[in-house]
Design brief:
3-stranded antiparallel sheet; 111 residues; single chain; 4% helix; 1 helix; mainly beta; 4-stranded antiparallel sheet
Length: 111
Amino acid sequence: ITYPLPVQIHNYSLAGRLGAYRADQLPKSWKLQGSNNGLASAYDPIASSNWETIDSRIGIDIATGWPKTTRTTTTRIFPLASPRTFRSYRLCITENNGSEYTSLIEFDFNR
């Protein structure tokens, strides 16, 4: 996500589906990164020095890490310990809850 001007975010939310064949596609581990120039390396976009990791989550599993609900979707808000200001943000998902596919229906920032 790239904004015209730098924006400070204080938390972000992820929403995904819980129905059959979808819960295992929720992210389990990831990094939220920010950049003010948005230039990622063509050879290794995840490790590019132009992106700073501002939040990382490991092991957010279906049973304990995502809110239980009777609806077919779930949303969780993740606060940032130290909000920073960047022009571009990206979410680098490194592991899902069992599936080789990722399923998110919303990725939102709260300023």
